[in-house]
Structure formats: C-alpha cells, structure tokens
Amino acid sequence: MLMFPCEVVAADRALQFQRGWFAHPIFKNGDYPDAMKWQVGNKSELQGLPETRLPSFTEEEKNLIKGTADMFCINHYTTKIVSHLTARLTPPSYKYDMDVSEEEEADSPTTAISNQRAVAWGLRRLLNWIKEEYGDPEIYVTENGVATDIKPQLMTLTESSTPKRSAHYYYHVMKDNGFPLPDDEKILYGQFPKTFNWSTASAAFQIEGSWRAHGKGLSIWDKFAHTPSRVDNSDNGDIACDSYNKIDMDVEVLKKLKVTLYHWDLPLALQKLGGWENETIVQRFRDYADVLFSRFGSRVKFWITLNEPYIVANLGYGYGTFAPGIVGKQYIAAHNLIKAHAEAWHLYNDKYRATQGGLISITINSDWVEPRNLYKQEDVDAAERYLQFFIGWFAHPIFNGDYPELMKTIIRKRSLAAGLPESRLPEFTPDKIKRINGTHDYFGFNHYTTVLSYPVDLGKQQDYEGDRGTGTTHDRTWIESGSSWLKITPFGFRKILKFIKDEYGNPPVYVTENGISERGEVTLNDIHRTHYYENYINQALKATLLDGVDLRGYTAWSLMDNFEWAAGYSERFGLFYVNRSNPTLPRIPKKSASRYSSIITCNGFPDPWTP
Ligand code: BGC
Asked: Catalytic residues (predicted)?
C-alpha cells in the first residue's frame, strides 16, 4: 500500500480526536492533544469566533487530571481508513474539526452494523499505538465483539442460554490462554525415505535465450514477449540466462536430467493453426514425443508430458494473460491438452517402456484453498468448487476418469440456462474416458500457495469464472512474496498432498516445483526463501511420515533467477542470483541455496538431540 505523509498525519489526527481527547489529559500532561487544540483553534478563528470552541483546563486542573489511571482500559470494535480532507467550516462540528474523510476497510468482513467492519489487524495496530503514545501502559481490553444478524437456527437454539459456537471458541482461547503454536506448525524432526529424489527445476524458455540461434523458429512466448505491453518492463527471453551457451556450467550443478516435453513455448507455426484449440495438435504432440523418446530415451528416465496444463489453458487460452494471449477458449484447450498427454503416455507405454524402463506422467499444479469463514457452508462449497475447477479439471480425467461431476453439472446447467444447446465443457466419449484414465506413472505436482474462498455470483457470465463462482482472498497475516499471488502458507502444502492421496488413489507423488519469489532490492541473504523452504519441506515430511502420502521426490523452483513469464525479470525465484547488469550473467548462490543443500544432504530434518 502506498502511504502518503499527509494521510499518516490524518490517521494520527483522527486517533487523537477519538482516543487522545480523553487519554491525552489523563495519560500524558493533563491537557488535550496538540493536534486537537490546533485544529479546533484554527477552525474557530476561521469561523470568526472570538476564542477556540475547545475549553481549556487550568494548570491546577491539569495537575489534578494527569496520571489519574492505574491502567489503560480500551473498548474497540472497528477500524476505518482515513485520508486528509479540508472539511467545511459550517456548521461548527467535532466531525469537521478533524479534517479527515473516512472509508471502510474494504477487505474485511462486514458485520450487522453498517459501517462497522470486523478489521482484526486494526486492534493490533491500535494496541501498538497506545503503547507508543502513552509510554507502554498496562492495557486492558474491556470490550470487543461483533454483531451478526444471522437468524438463530431455531431447531438447535431452543433455550435462551444455548451457547453459540463463538462461545466455545472463546472458551478455548481462555483455556489455552491464547493461541499456542498448533502441532501442525511445529517442526517435525525426521527424514524422508532413503530413495527420496531431490532436485531443482528450471524451464527452457525461462533460461535458455539464443532465441534465433541456428535458425530456431519462433515460439508463442517469443511473439508474446515481443508484443508491446504484454511483459513487465518490456522484458523478453531473447538472452534470458544464456543457458543455451552456458549449458556445461549449469548442468554441472544438476545431477540427474529429467525432461519436460512441454513447458509453454509452443512453436508459433502451430499456433497459426490454432495451437491447443485445434484437435490436430494431439497427433502432432504424439509425433513430437516420439522424436524425443527415440533420441533421448536411453538417457532420460523421468518424463513429464505437460507442465501445468491449467496455466496453459486458463492463462494462455482463458484470461489471455500468458502466451498466446487468447481469451475464453480454456475448456477446449484443456480438452486437447489432456488428450495429447494421454497419447504421449500411451506411446511411451506401448513402444518404449519395455526397452527404456523410464517413468512418464503429467505435472498438475494447484493451490490449496480454505473457506474464508470455516463455519459458513457457502465458503466451504466455494472451496470445493475452487479445487475441482483447478486440480480436478486435469487430475480427475487422468486419475479417476472424466471431468469432475461437479464441473460437468455446473457448466451444463449454466450453459443450458443461457440458452445454449449443450454444455460449454466438451465431453469425452466413453472410449476416450477409458483411454485417458490411468495414463500416469506418478502424480507430478507443482505447488506454491493457499487462498481463501467465498462464493461470487457472476450472473449469466458464460465463462470459467462464472462457472466456478468462487472469489479468493488472502489472510493478511500470511507473509508476502515478490508475487502478489504467492503468500507463505506451508500448512496448505501438507493439506493438498493429503487431498491428492485421498482423492486420486494414493499415487506416488513427485513435487516437481515449489518455491518463492522476491522483487526489488537484491539481497543474497534471502531469509524469506530460506524460511519458505524449511517450512514447506517440513510440511512435506509431515505429509509423508504422518499422513502416509507416498511422496517420492521434491523439486525446488528455481535453480536461478529467470524470465518469470509476464512478470519478466522483476520476480526472482532463484536459489542462485543472476546478475543481469553484468554481461556475463554470473550465477551467485543465495543463502537459501546452502540451506536447501543441507536439507538435501540430511535427507530432511534429523533430530539434533539424537546422537
Ligand atoms: C511454472 C514456472 C514459473 C513458476 C513461478 C510455475 O507455475 O511452471 O514456469 O516460473 O510457476 O510462477
């Protein structure tokens, strides 16, 4: 949030008018706050009055008033956002004396009282303000609560003294004397299975550069990045990290080679035929896979057909914020992506597996989601829709057969209600369902963050957003990263790994990406990233040891700072810093690189107290 000094002063002035009016005389010097005396004095003079409308205390009164409190008692309900305003002079009023305008804090939940949002973070700031302003007094919160207008559920609330759920909650807070760190946030000591695979990822377009070397044709990302206003700072992948020329150096830090067939850089020539919208891409993808399997299959034993089809479909062909920048075609793109994956898997299975003996599957990405209000059924339902429209869209056809029922039902219903002859979600024939179902050797999974869900009704809007009907937000206490969408939420990692186990038949899972970005000032002491890896990997350990998730491998994203798609080079995910102001693009390890390497060496978090 941008803060302007005059707004900070306005906020302090508002506090002085409210709290300071009474607290200042008692806790400070027996007199009203200077800001109040100044404002009311000036306004009174401007209003042509002979003296200020704020009465004054005599010296004797001041001495009498000052220090007449053993503790600071505060009642608090809400927080407002204020800005500076030159308020009118007439009629003379306390409100206009303040020279501020007030707004609601729009991100916080509303209550039954209009204009009184429940702004949890405001209480913390207020307590800090009192501490600073009045010299760290003993504080007692003597009132704090919220008004709701939900009708009591009559069946359960028959007695007038029946406790609400909040009563149980408050009872627990008192019993625990606060919020002891839940067990699931405490570090678990232990190690991953001996055969666990550790790795670090990057992607061709994001690091290679040499965009026209040896007659290389254009890809959809070359085109996108060379289109004005598509990528931040007009960045592009022409040179990227120059890994095309520095291959030996980069491979030096990587042990085993794993290969992804498709990480978003579709040849532009294929896009000219419709790209993922054109069903012929399925056969072409199979042909392409054939070339790679036959050329590299003797050395590559771990294949990923597609990286994050969700992003390809939804950002590339739905919202249009990623290449090729097409809007509203995500369902058909997804349909072809799923079929293309299945054909590549079958090809490997039928023609190469016996001789090459590798593993092949797809990498699906998903956030974890929590209902914004755990006790509100609409938020719980919104969370379910969020997951089924995200991970389920791709995982369900491949691991369980066909799209999730929830998706099929919602999209059909909304399409027919809008007068369309059929569902906007394409259908798989029964044969196709069978052919796609089971095309996996493992569950490749990319994960970064968690969101909070709530329902949104977009009326008749005929698209993915309208179908999903879910809005998302974040908890303000979650630590931020260099990407607005990515907050540090380690607990969600364990939960979604467990979800995968329960929902998709306990498959072997390889985490093929997980990491965090930073932006702005460069520091090699990247404590956020170190914290992120320690906590996320520890949650992965809990998923393995406590929840029985069959986790086989973990991959950090990313090896080095690179071309972060539409964000260009402004968001940096690397364990290694790439100094872009030096033409040789040197790679310099950040602190997180050594922490990650020690976690790998220890194969987890061995108990320091065990000899
Ligand atoms: C992608 C990467 C990307 C990373 C961070 C993943 O979704 O596969 O290419 O850099 O997220 O946004």
From this structure: 143 (nucleophile), 513 (nucleophile)
